[in-house]
Fold:
Amino acid sequence: MAEVSVSTPRPEEPQLRRVMGPKLLLFFVVGDIIGTGVYALTGQVAGRVGGALWLPFLLAFVVAFMTAFSYLELVGKYPRAAGAALYTNKAFGVPFLTFMVAFAVMCSGITSASSAAVAFGATYLAAFVKLPTVLVAIAFVLLLALVNFRGVGESVKANVVLTCIELSGLLIIIGVGVWAVLNGEGEPARLVEVDTADQTWLVAITSATSLAFFAMVGFEDSVNMAEECHEPVRIFPRAMLWGMVVAATVYVLVSVTSSLLVPAGDLASAESDALLKVLDVGAPGFPREIFSAIGLFAVINSALINMLMASRLLYGLANERVLPPIFGRVHPARRTPWVSIVFTSLIAIVLVSFADISALGGTTALLLLVVFAIVNVAVLVLRRDRVAHRHFRAPTVIPALAAVFCLYLVSPFSGRPAQDYRVAAILLAVGVLLWLVNWLVKRILAGGGTAEG
Structure:
């Protein structure tokens, strides 16, 4: 299939450099999903559902996998940067909705990167040397910005190495579990235990699934890299779907291992150190420093990918005339969106310096589920928009069901805590304020005429 001409930068701007083939894209998807989510969420999911903690991860994968079909159809039709915001803009043509979707996606990426920066300084690096967390986090963000500016080729090759390292940490947990079970350890009965002490069976599972869903997000980030892929229409379906299958398989095996070796209550009390608890039980004497070192590389990879995504999102929206054109500036030598890189990096520095990032995790998952519901509807709306080239097409029933499942996980019926909604309301209020600023800036740039959203 011939490569489709997809980029729409302004004539005076150079295009982004296409460096990603199917293998690099596969590693991008796996690395983005794996991230640090399962390291941090295993204990929390166990606290909500009990010993059957593999089930929420599996259900989260099913919902995410169905949503991925919508993303694949849309990136096939419109293989450009900006992802969900681009699809929302084309489907509904409401600038305010487009901006808020972009804001939600950007929040998810920058918040995840900022959380990783804080975890780098406060948890993983602290195992080796004690340094001021905020200063380490700021230096961490600046280093990511330099790598991002240097070029996507260097960034995605670094991602391959880092993804292999972070996968090795989870494979160690799985290997420890297999070894322990072969030696007669573990309690299989825990795998079907659901904690219904203060809630129904359904709420326990859906509440845990809405939390576990945060560990499955990341696949959607890859569509923002479409302009830096060779033949994106051809390579995206296989790379994204296989990447999700690999990540989900690892998650389920890790959660099964954890439940076999450690009671759910102990996993929940260990919180972010749940997998270290599994390691202590299954392989006492295994050097914790090795796992801490792997954690260092995992947070670096998670943050790098999220900052890549966030900067490409702003770049793509500038080319779609949703944001001021300055965000579409591309460095002539490095061929990277340098203004967007600077802007997103500055936001991350503010977050790691002043914000309580730990309160944003559940909220960003909530906002992403809303975005996924919108994308699942958008793919059906855009069936009326024909394109000349062949592309992936999702069976109609899959986006419809995925939209329903996403909205259910957003609703209070899923057992989602009230704090998620309160923080989401604050974030959306900030988004509305930024939309007004963006509208005024575009109006000024247009010379006082009517702004394009």
